[in-house]
Structures are given as C-alpha cells and as structure tokens.
Amino acid sequence: MKTDHIRNFSIIAHIDHGKSTLADRLLEITGTVSSRDMTEQIMDQMELERERGITIKGKAVKMSYNKQGSRFQLNLIDTPGHVDFGYEVSRALAACEGAILVVDATQGIQAQTLANVYLAMEHDMTIIPVVNKIDLQVAQPARVSLELQQAFGFTDEEIIFVSAKDGSGIEDLLAAIIERIPPPKTEYNELRALVFDSNYDPYKGVVAYVRLFDGHIEKGSQMLMMATGSKADILEVGNFLPRPTQTSVLAAGEVGYIATGLKNVRECRVGDTLTLTNNPSTKPLPGYQPLKPMVFAGLYPSDGDEYLVLRTALEKLQLNDAALVYEPETSAALGFGFRCGFLGLLHMEIVQERLEREYGLNLLITAPSVRYSVTKTDGEEIEVDSPAKLPPTHLITEMKEPILSLNIVVPAKFIGAVMDIVTAKRGEFVRMEYLQNNTLDESVPDSSESRVLLEYRAPLSEILMDFYDQLKSRTHGYASMDYSIFGYKAAPLVKLDILVNNQPVDALSLIVHKEKSLQQGKTLVERLKNLIPRQMFEVPVQAAIGNRVISRETIRALRKNVLAKCYGGDITRKRKLLEKQAEGKKRMKRVGNVEIPQEAFLAILQLDR
Asked: Above 60 in pLDDT, residue 608?
C-alpha cells in the first residue's frame, strides 16, 4: 500500500476518559473485529487491566477503512492514561504522526490531559480534539469545548463530539483522521524500524513491536540491531488485527511485529533501530529519552531458593516494561534480592502483581524510597536510593532531595483543602490559573464550578506516601494530579533506624526530614508493635537517629500456662515451674530471632494517616 493511504495515530487522554471504549468503536465500525467477537475493552487483554479498568500497556492495531472509493490503512496505538505509565505514551507518540485527544464531557480537562497534550506538541504532532461521553445526562459538551479552546487554542470547528458508548460521531472522527493527520514520510531506501515495545515468546524469542520509517522487511531476512549490534534471522512478520496475525511483508509507514528468535532479552532494546544486515542504514532513528525512575523499593523472594527465578522474571518483564530498572541487592534481614526503580507507586504495585501472577512468585517488598543526592566531607557527590547506602552522619556535608513540579486540577471550591494538604507536605505555591472563564459564553452554565490549575513545588518523598489518597478524599474525588521532576534542593534530612529486639532492620530504615523525625519514629514503632507477632520472649521495638533512641514500644511476651497441670499441691512446686519458665525466656531473648511480616514493611506508607 502507498504511504499516502496510511495514517498512524495514538489515543491520549486522562485516566477513565474513554480511550479503550473509543478504540472498541473504531475497531467495530471499521470491521476489524466482527460483532460476534466484540467484547468491552477488547484491547485490554491483560487480566490486571480488566480487573482495575485501566490501560497499563500501549496496544497497536491495524484497521482498514474505505472513504470515497479509496482504502486507507489506519494504525492505532492505544495508550495508558495514568501518570505512572507516561513512558508508554511518549514511546507511542514517537511512532505516530497524529493523536486523538479524548476529553470526558462530564469532567473536562484534567491534569494528565494537559501533560499528554504538551507531550504531543513536543513531538510536533497533529492533534484532533474529541469530546467524549456526550450521551450522558450530566454531560456539558459546550463547557468542555470552551475549555479546550481556551487551554490549547483549538477552534470550535476542530472539536469533534462523540459518544464512544453508542457510536455517534465516530464516522466524523474517522473522516477527520484521514483528512487532518498527515501520511508517513520516507527518506531512505534502507530499512529503518523503531522498536517501540517488545515481548518475549518461548517459541519465537524476543518479539519486537516496530514502526517502519523506511524500507521494507519480510520473513527470512537477516536483521541487525543498530545499538546492540546483535543479528538474527527473522522468523515471522505480521500486523495486529488486533491479535498478532502473520503477513508476508511489512512496508514503510506500517506498524507491526517482528519475531526475532533472540533468546537474550538484552539484545533487543526498546528505542533501538532495526535494519537489515545486507543493506544496513547508517543513520539510526532518534529513539527515546530514557526516563529516570522516581521510586525505589527492594524486591525479595519469600523463599531464598527463588532468587534465580525472580532474576529471570525481572529480565523478561523489563522487556515488556522499559521503564522498570533493577540491580542486585543484599539485606541483612531479608537476604538476596533486587533494588528496583519505578515511575510511581501504581507502577510498583502493578510490577509486583505481574511478577506474582505471571511467574508464580511469592514476594516481599520493602517500603519505597526516593533517590537523594549526598555531598560528602571530601567533596564527593553520590546518589543514594536506599537508607542502607547512606554514609555515616559525620561524613555528610549536605543532602539534597528530589523536588516535583505538581499540577493539580480541582473545582474552585476545593482550593483551600488542596492548599492545606500540599502545605502540610512542605509544598511551595507557584501559581494558580482558572481553566475556564464562564463569562465568555452565556450558554455555558455558571454554577461556581470553575476549575483551577494549581502549580506547586513539593518534595517527592512527601508526595510518595499517601498524598494522592488524601487529595482524592479531601476533594470528594474531583481533583486530578500530574507531576514531573523539577530538580534537587538541600534539606535537613536524617536517617531513622528501626531496631527490633536491639537489632537494626535495614529494610525498615527511613530517610526523613529532621522536623518530622520524632513524630514519624513514634508513629512507626506504635504501628510495628501491633503488626509484629508476639514471641515467647519480650521484644523491644525502637526508633533511633544515630546512637540516640527517640521512641520505644515493647511487644509483650506470650506466656505459656505452665501451671495448667498443677491441680493443687505445694506452692513451691508452682514457683519452681515458673522460675524454670523465666530462665528459658531469658535464654530465648538472648538468641531469639523475630520474624517480621510483609504488613510491617508497608506500614511506612500510612505514616501520615
């Protein structure tokens, strides 16, 4: 097919604005999926996606559509909406020429809507604004249309009104895709294909999901990965319809998959350029800006024998999730494991669930932390992503913590509540902007529900724990949030050690702000007292900064009733049994080893509640 008749586009939106449902209607109306095989959210095949009702992985699909006697090939890449999966969105946009911006007619512009639009603008893409869910009684399409015009400068004629549920407006959208989104351009005859995602198949090896910018590729060709230098004979090429379907050839402008047969997952990286060995390209494609992980946690197998299984599982999962990074780590309390980097708490939760479900692992995950910049007394600067790696206090000159740029979109009546929450988290106010001005259009009802964009700078460590839950709770679920790394800032930080039975537990240590250390240490030991099971001996739980204990709780000993068999007799007999028990308890206390449950490590997440 000529590239003139190909259109590559993504669907971008805030979470739960109807991306997957819109993709369903496009597949149905173009006849890609028959009505018999049609199910809701057909693109979301992962069990976790269906359970949670969110898109976690970007999906590609090829559709055919006839317009005025010409047949067009429409390649759609559906993207996630949650901020933690923003890397999936950026990779999808690099493989497309246009994007459909979906905004919910009942909610209007949200924080992630703004982030995704700016991302699309950075890639210099054509954006088609779509107002979805117009069939709902509470929908306000006129108000949302006005917001889009004021926030991004769209004209009234550009905005398309659709209902992804009942299919109204979808034909207009398909026409707009063909008319407005430019066809792909080819510059060279040599093959250049961008790997925007990949997967591992036990029979076909690494399966690369590619967008071909130049040339063509077919089964049996020998391919070359330009960054890694690895070579392989191609076992299969094909398109997504939406399930992988084998085809004879992939040509310039198309989106599809290539079964490489590579068994080492590191030989085919996301963002690499794929070319042919016999006619290689000399100019690789730009690839992607690698994202720095923001949240770090230790992953340990509950059974030490599963360490190698966990390593293999992480390798394969990293192939499918390019934002995941990991390195080996050893803990005195937990044994051998991995220090993993994630883009956010939801990303961490999803990775843990996927490892447990897809690979049958039983994992223990430590409390998440962030990456600090530490300047030592000898002038050396190091990065610390775990409290265990922090140098002794007398060797530290200065510590800097990562600062986030927070964008919060909220109805005007909740401004005070949001300001209270962010100020309590050491946030600094930057600016406030009203997203709409109702006086511009009298047809739009003014019910004092104007929405406001609040911009703050706040430490990542404070936002990490339960900020999002508090934000949703205090604003009755109306607030939405987006964030990006702003930089590093010096702060008075200290290491808070937790000692259980006089032994420091490195996996429970925290790096906290000096002013909050006393309160957080007290709260944590109180919580651990209730979570750690009672032993046959007394167990002290202490919070300490350096050599100074700042808080202590004692887990009382379980007491076996050694007098149960004494139905009477002399008191000396009973005393003898009790003294023998006391001696045994002292001995147990000296050599006792306390088992700490998973809930204790996660108690840190709810410190501020």
From this structure: no
In this predicted structure, the answer to whether residue 591 has a pLDDT above a threshold of 60 is no
> Residues 166-186: pLDDT tens digits?
889 999 999 999 999 999 988
Q: For the residues of 413-466, what is the DSSP string, one character each?
A: GGHHHHHHHHHHTT-EEEEEEES--GGG-TTS--SS--EEEEEEEEEHHHHHTT
> Could you tell me which of 582, 512, 578 has the C-alpha nearest to residue 544?
512
- Retrieve residue 334's tokens: 């937990």
CA–CA dist 264, 101 (Å, integer):
37
**Residue 394, number of CB atoms within 10 A of its CB:** 7
18/582 Cα distance (integer angstroms): 66
Mean pLDDT of the chain: 84
Q: Tell me the C-alpha distance between 121 and 99, whole Å.
A: 10
Verify that 142 and 10 share a domain, yes or no: yes
Structure tokens at 31: 């006849």
The pLDDT, as a whole number, for residue 441 is 46
User: Could you tell me the CATH number of the domain that includes residue 237?
Assistant: 2.40.30.10
Range of the domain at 528: 495-606
> For residue 63, is it within any domain?
yes
Instruction: Give the residue among 490, 465, 491, 485 at the shortest CA–CA distance from 403.
Output: 485
List of residues 6+ apart from 130 with CB closer than 8 A: 22, 100, 101, 102, 103, 159, 160, 161, 162, 173
DSSP H helix total and E strand total for the chain = 14, 31
CA distance linking residue 103 with residue 19, whole number of Å: 9
In the predicted structure, residue 589 carries a pLDDT above the cut 50: yes
- Cα distances (Å, whole numbers) of residue 580 to 459, 565, 585, 589: 54, 15, 9, 14
Residue closest to 16 by CA, chosen among 55, 45, 61? 55
| Residue 109 pLDDT > 70 | yes
Q: How sure is the predictor about 489, in pLDDT bands with cuts at 50, 70 and 90?
A: very high
**pTM of structure:** 0.76
Indicate the number of domains in the chain: 5
CATH number for 460: 3.30.70.240
**Beta strands per DSSP E along 183-289:** 192-201, 205-214, 216-218, 222-225, 231-233, 236-240, 244-247, 249-251, 255-259, 273-276
As a whole number, mean pLDDT of residues 86-103 equals: 86
